[in-house]
Give the backbone structure.
Amino acid sequence: MNATGKKRKKLNLNVDVHHLARVEGHGNIKVRVADGVLAEARWEIVETPRFFEVMLKGKHYATAGILTARICGICSVGHCLASVRATEDAFGIAVPQPAARLRLLAKHGETLQSHVLHLFFLAAPDFLGLPSAIPLVESKPDVFSLAARLKGLGNRICDVVAGRSLHPVSIQVGGMAKLPDKHLLRELKFQLERAIDDLGSTVELLRTFEIPDFQRETEFVSLKAERDYPFIGGRLLSTDGAEAAESDYRAMTNEYVTEDNTSKWCKLSRRSFAVGALARLNNNYHRLHPKARVAAVEFDLTPVCHNPFMNNVAQLVECVHVVHDSIRIIDELLDAPSDGTMAEVKPKAGRGVAAVEVPRGILYHEYEYDDRGRIVRANCIIPTTQNNANIHHDLSALVEQFAVEGMTDQRLELLCSMLVRAYDPCISCSVH
Amino acid sequence: MRHLNIDQKRPRIAVFDFTGCEGCQLQLANKEETLGAFLSAIEVVNFREASSAAGDDYEVALIDGAISRPDEIPRIEAIRRQAKLLVAMGSCACFGGVHKLKNACDLDEANREVYGDCPKETIPTMAIGDVVPVDLRILGCPPTKDEIERVVQHLVWDLPLPSYGYPVCVQCKQRYTVCRFDVGELCLGPITRAGCNAPCPAGGLGCWGCRGPAQIPNYEEFFDLAGQRGFARQEIDERLGFFGGFEEVI
């Protein structure tokens, strides 16, 4: 109200978040609404650049997976897998069947660990009105132990299959360095079967969350299912109809440098696109495990869903998928003869590309090798790098929808923060 | 929380990240079977990756990552002024970690290669201890949650800090792991400080020395052994340089 009280005051809003909390890495949100008009809505990446692609030059092929795992603590299994697969592509190596199964199992372990970490520890506090998940230890011990059990199971799978959950050791060029003992696989299967009830409780919990009603038409990019819900290798697909071979990943990413960000940005058919659980689900819904589709239906999540906040739900649906699929893989491993898990590795000059669906979306590694098996040139394109432009453009649309009478700086800050968190950004990854 | 009717100290802890993968922070949330008890034993005052509550009245600062951009220097200096105890957590904080590999490159050229005409600010990578005094180091890439818990137990109950003078080889023997040299691979286990419980050799990978040198590393014997097994000095030096912990010998 102005002094006379007759004219309504125009809406003015300011959001300035420096180093957003509960995301991996360092990003800022800046929003300004002046006199009811959106003046600025920005998502800025200010993470320290690390130059991994330069560090990879001259490195021996056996070093690449160990080094690139260090791009990201949360998805180190995914980076290591993309790295060894790119090298195997360059050298023309096909990994033995048991190794392929073990890799997918490790991938599933990481997906479960990462999604549960995001859902309970990064995203849930906003919906529960808490600064973090830590108070749950005292206030809701059953919810806390539910999260701890599921996350612990994800890590346990990686420990057994990849030798360690964080920075794996057994995923190597040619296959897997060891086959886990069968009794450990049986124990994992037992724990996975018990986790099905825990996932049911998680569905119940998420159904109590009020997911903001926001849509912005978006292009979604992921691997394309050939037979199974895709995680490791294959063709690339977008909901706008773009399709490419794994080796043509550059046509699907179109990475470019911006002045204000240490992360690059990407575009495809529109000025931005999205990757991640929601993109995978939008493109491959019918390849989900039937039980995972049941979970999706509980939230009315069907393709193509354009609400980015539903990425949280898509992650939960994928948790259901990977738990059921892990049981299938373990059954196959237990039935199969204990064949070798390593193919012979002979370096040769050439180029190799790998696309792997890591928790936050599709990840690409490309290496060019000389004939001694040393890297001449490397390129890594990270899921969050692909999402950054989309987050930025979502912010404008979100503010335009919600900057109405009654909105406060504090509530808008929470909404904007929740939007960014819904993408589960891995910012240090995106600035590798 | 009370044990044996005694009120225990709850150290006020903050966690800060610099140049790195943030995996050390992730380790804080791992080892789920003791996570509730771990979080109850401490007061988390500032931990951006896990909480939107941010306080400045911390006593203990856990530092994840190395220093590789000018703005990180005043930031770590301010943390040093506040913290009674500053803990470098992981290989990046302790030695500079894999990020030191970029120091071998021309940084202007590296910038051009990655960012073209929009270069970003960067400086040669330094360990935290190169910039401010460090009180405690938790080694490893990643450090084990066990060791992080031991530091917290030291702060809460004055239990002795873990100390491993001996090399990784000892822990391989303790868990009956086949020696990586015996399967024809290079391994830095004979000279690297133990405490990790040797997960890499057990998982089929020779040690890469992420924890730096053992207390009294026998370099001479190690180079002799590796030479006899046919490994060239270049390969050994590349591995010694990987995590930045062996600068004294390369």
Observations:
- The longest strand of chain A covers residues 37-45.
